[in-house]
Model the fold of this input.
Amino acid sequence: MSRKRSPSHSSRSRASKRIRQSDLQTDSIDPTIKRRFQRRLLAWYRKYGRDLPWRRTSDPYKILVSEVMLQQTQVDRVIPKYHEFLEKYPTVQDLAAAKPEEVRELWYPLGYNIRPHRLHSIACETVERYGGTIPKEPDALLSLKGIGRYTAGAVRSFAFNEDAPILDTNVMRVLHRVFYGEGEPKALKSRLWALSEALIPKGKGYDFNQALMDFGAMVCTARKPYCVRCPLRSLCRAYPDRST
Done:
């Protein structure tokens, strides 16, 4: 079998130069690069996107539960606990009515025990302030203690189908490698948030955000990323300097 030829160094350099000039210096994105990034990422997602239980619902409560569970925890560990948790607490009202220690016991063994406490508190506050309906408005979501910018964006995007940006570890890694390629991602966090928002194709926030997360988890991994099979490699500023 013949090996597919990788893009030439000069073509990668030209793509990298366009990204560097447009993004690093002016925080705007070259329209050609933007379209290619969007098109290739969404095409990859249509073929390889994961089938996860929380992607089969638009219930903001269920999506909130999944997002809190997924913090610092692998997907495979979350799936069975997600089903178990929702079987016992199927609604915000059910969770709010539960005793905190019962919620914590059911959460085991996911770890990070502040999370069940945080989720229970969000449920109680949602019932008290919003009658058990998780709000759609970003300011209202962020006013709930325990919901930060990422979780608010995820709920807006995945439950309410809004073009809201997200920036978790996987998304940050993908955007940083493709559009920056060097430096510390956390030092560029505010720019990466702006980039995450600017890249969303109008009306496709749900698929685009899911694609970013899956791509970071499956291809652009933290260790030993699969650069050779990456559909974004000709756009990626990190690729020319990485061992493949």
Remarks:
- Residues 59-158 form a domain with the Endonuclease III; domain 1 fold (CATH 1.10.340.30).
- Residues 1-26 have pLDDT under 50 and may be disordered.
- The chain has two domains: 9-50+164-241, 59-158.
